[in-house]
Amino acid sequence: MTQTVLWIAQRVTAGILAVCVVVHLATIIYAVQGGLTAAEILGRTRGNTAWLAFYLVFVLAAAIHAPIGLRPVLGEWLHWRGIWREVFLVFFAYALLWFGLQAVLGVFAV
Amino acid sequence: MKVRVWRGVAQGEFQSFDVPREPSQTVLDVVTYIQRKLDPTLAYRYACRVGMCGSCAMTVNGVSRWTCRTHVNQVARNDELTIGPLRNLPVIRDLVTDMREFFDKWARARGQFKGGRTRHDDFERVAPQSEHREAVDAGIECIGCAVCYSSCNVVAANPAYLGPAALNRAWTLVNDVREKENAERLRAVAGDAGCHACHTHMDCTERCPKHLSPTAAIAGLKRATTKAALKGKL
Amino acid sequence: MSRWLAHVHRVSGIALAIFLPLHFWALGNALQLDSFLAWTRQPLVKAGEWAIVVALAAHLGGGLRILAIEFLDWHEWQNSLAAVAAAVTLAVGLALALAL
């Protein structure tokens, strides 16, 4: 049952991330024309609730997708299975969420 | 032609034999020649020798295949061949593997038909062109030769993984309309040892001598377990 | 072919999983963003950025292949072809666009 739920979560977040990544990359291509400056980035993100919402969804989806993806890698390549692998992955998810929120708020906050 | 053959069990070594090269010759011909003419102590399996039973499956130059259906011309490199037992299975001796785990996993995946009717009931009508029957037809020809199991990376890395053949069989039963209760089967094939462990490397589909697609069957099981989970039936 | 694609998918995923926390950490220090951006103009860092972009494209392409196999009724080889095409196009387009 758990693995089925994880599988579903992985595919759903994959779909969300596919959209987010395309938007993110398009933004990057646009932003790097003529050089990249902090002022330009922050000018776009500061106080902008649309970007805030977008990046919150992006960070949440990534924080779910990355640990689930790493799970079989740890199991098959490092032969790490059992409860401590799950503990590590939950910790990793929270770490991504924490640092991700710091980043999102960092560029949003005025 | 120089032929290196695995001798021993888990520990052992490759022994070299010089085998005359014929214009039309299968790898099974080669192994048979070695055992009959050069070294009678060589252990190997075969039965039909015409590509029907799957008993002669071995590893030839690193690839799992039916040796009776592999012409030497197809696989020999520089007049050399390397022959070993199937992978991912314990070796009994030389080219013979212990198939018990392979079939035990088949049973663990609920690969047996159960049904629900008795001799007093009428036949179940199964439409041949129905979506379900076509899914069954696509996978029903499996003869349990273990070439897919031997080719699978995940089986090698994850000892509990049920494997492509067992899951393929389970999928044919999930689609069998005579099976009324599939919840138990879906529970058996879900999880770290089941369909969710498949990473779509597709070695099974590439190597299956019957041209089946366990990958497609496992994808079907992923969808079926998802549907069951969402309905609270898993 | 599929096995190779699956390995690329896995390795690119690992690379992204390592990159992401660092990316977040760097952005979290928004006050020093300009000095950080100056650091990113070094050739070695630019090469790393290009590698990450390629990894992203490869991982997306591989992921689309898996989604196609798991949800669509495609023939096996079409899946590999589609994903390779998608990933390559994306990577090439991005690399050129970013002129890294």
Q: What labels describe this entry?
A:
heterotrimer; B: 234 residues; alpha+beta; Ubiquitin-like (UB roll); Fumarate Reductase Iron-sulfur Protein, Chain B, domain 2; five-stranded mixed β-sheet; two-stranded antiparallel ribbon; 10 helices; 14% strand; elongated; C: 100 residues; mainly alpha; 3 helical TM bundles of succinate and fumarate reductases; 4 helices; 87% helix; 0% strand
How do the strands and helices of this protein lay out in sequence?
The complex is a heterotrimer of chains A (110), B (234) and C (100).
Chain A: H1 2-32, H2 38-45, H3 49-77, H4 83-108
Chain B: E1 2-8, E2 12-18, H1 27-38, E3 57-60, E4 63-66, H2 72-75, E5 80-84, E6 91-93, E7 96-97, H3 100-108, H4 131-139, H5 147-151, H6 153-157, H7 164-174, H8 183-189, H9 203-207, H10 214-230
Parallel strand pairs in B: 1-5
Antiparallel strand pairs in B: 1-2, 3-4, 3-5, 6-7
Helix pairs in contact in B: 3-7, 4-7, 7-10, 8-10
Chain C: H1 2-28, H2 33-40, H3 43-71, H4 76-98
Helix pairs in contact in C: 1-3, 3-4
Structure, explained:
The complex is a heterotrimer of chains A (110), B (234) and C (100). Chain A is mostly helical. Chain A contains 4 helices and no strands. The longest helix of chain A is centred in the first third of the chain and has 31 residues, at 2-32. Chain A has helices spanning 2-32, 38-45, 49-77, 83-108. In chain B, strands 2-1-5-3-4 form a 5-stranded mixed β-sheet. A two-stranded antiparallel ribbon of chain B has the order 6-7. By secondary structure, chain C is an all-alpha fold. Chain C has one domain (2-98): Fumarate reductase/succinate dehydrogenase, transmembrane subunit (3 helical TM bundles of succinate and fumarate reductases, Up-down Bundle). Chain C has 4 helices and no strands. Chain C has helices at 2-28, 33-40, 43-71, 76-98. In chain C, α1 packs across α3 (43-71) and α3 (43-71) packs antiparallel against α4 (76-98). Classes of the chains: A mainly alpha (110), B alpha+beta (234), C mainly alpha (100). The interface between A and C is medium-sized, with 29 and 29 residues.
